[in-house]
Design brief:
about 375 residues; eight-stranded antiparallel beta sheet; about 15% strand
Length: about 375
């Protein structure tokens, strides 16, 4: 068997074995590329009824959400998100672990999100977050909606197979000479061109032009599939060093049952006046040392800031910007933006969209090439 035939066999059987999963990943990747732009369009409860002079204190909105959430006694208040845009509602969420060993992700935990008008306290929507459309798409993309212990290895393995298929595909595509190269970079279709030839060109030419983007998407996607890969990449970027994160703790001598949520919120609003939105993550009650974490989002992701506060005194304990992270942490921080193309803004998302679309089409067009050749051999035999 020649080298080219061996590569063809590898390309064929790897493509057939992972094809269905790659199609699912590609289509869901297309849908999720623009989730940040589409969510406010399709969900009217993201917006207030009318802008007024004064907003209610955040602590009051949290109490309203607790009273409105009928499942609150079974769930824990976990956090909230507010926006600088006065048109946007405040998001408050609750969480409960169900069965961590459950087969489907929605049986592992229960999330409830409430959207409140910050001016009136009116609950615009109580949402079962597990089944929100874009959440379902993300979980289908990330774990095939399975328990992550099951879904991550399956998706990760299919992604590795896809990467090998891209490389073997490039080897098969590579032209032998200049004359052959003229037919590999563009479509030479005529009215008489048969659909088999068109399908062959769609597989090869689109695959070639999307290869670099598809590889970037696949390689960054592996970060969520395999923890060892994630740690290995960070270790490599840090020059073979492993950094231990310093843990900051709250001062239990200043214990108080009521957390200073309003004070913490006022602090981040005052210190980060140009931010786009503000996340507040409430520490678990059982961990008395845990800190109150906040995350401040900007339009430019490199401006984002995370701040940890003492849960009792509201004293800032740690302020971290992108530039203060080590190389591994910097990569991990922007990995999602690389994966969906948002690192280049809206044009980058468009590129990621088309790369995902082509990736989803490759197993289909590849299968049709294989099917056509097999049928041709069968017909000749008959």
């Amino acid at each position: 068997m020649t080298f080219k035939k061996l590569i063809l066999k590898i390309h064929l059987w790897l493509g057939l074995s992972s094809g269905l999963i790659v199609v699912i990943l590609g289509i869901t990747g297309c849908l999720y590329c623009f989730e940040e732009e589409l969510r406010p369009i399709v969900h009217d409860y993201y917006y207030v009824d009318q802008i007024k002079d004064k907003k209610l204190p955040l602590s009051q909105l949290i109490e309203i959400a607790k009273n409105a959430n009928s499942d609150y006694p079974k769930q824990s208040f976990s956090g909230c998100r507010t926006f600088s845009d006065d048109n946007r509602t405040v998001v408050i969420w609750f969480y409960k672990e169900l069965d961590k060993d459950a087969f489907w992700y929605w049986n592992q935990y229960h999330n409830t999100y409430l959207y409140l008008d910050p001016f009136t306290g009116n609950v615009k929507k109580q949402e079962d977050y597990n089944f929100e459309f874009f959440v379902f798409v993300r979980m289908l993309h990330q774990t095939l909606c399975l328990n992550s212990d099951i879904g991550d290895p399956i998706v990760g393995t299919a992604t590795i197979v896809f990467i090998i298929s891209l490389i073997t595909g490039l080897i098969l595509w590579w032209p032998k000479n200049k004359q052959a190269a003229k037919q590999r970079f563009s479509f030479k279709w005529k009215n008489s061109t048969k659909w088999k030839r068109k399908n062959y060109d769609l597989h090869n030419i689109l695959g070639f032009y999307s290869m670099l983007f598809a590889l970037l998407i696949a390689l960054t996607g592996l970060v969520w599939a395999f923890q060892s890969y994630d740690k290995g990449v960070q270790w490599l970027l840090n020059g073979g060093k492993t950094f231990e994160n310093e843990r900051f703790v709250s001062d239990t001598t200043q214990y108080t049952k009521k957390m200073p949520t309003d004070k913490i919120y006022a602090s981040i609003r005052q210190s980060q006046p140009k931010a786009k939105s503000f996340y507040l993550f409430v520490p678990e009650e059982k961990d008395s040392l845990a800190t109150f974490s906040t995350f401040i989002r900007y339009n430019n992701r490199f401006d984002d800031v995370s701040i940890e506060f003492d849960r009792y005194t509201a004293k800032p304990l740690k302020i971290e910007t992108y530039h203060e992270k080590n190389n591994g942490e910097k990569f991990r921080f922007i990995n999602y933006d690389l994966h969906v193309g948002s690192i280049l803004g809206f044009p980058g998302k468009v590129l990621a969209f088309f790369a995902s679309l082509v990736s989803a089409s490759l197993p289909v067009t590849g299968f049709l090439i294989w099917w056509g050749r097999n049928n041709k051999k069968t017909n000749k035999t008959k």
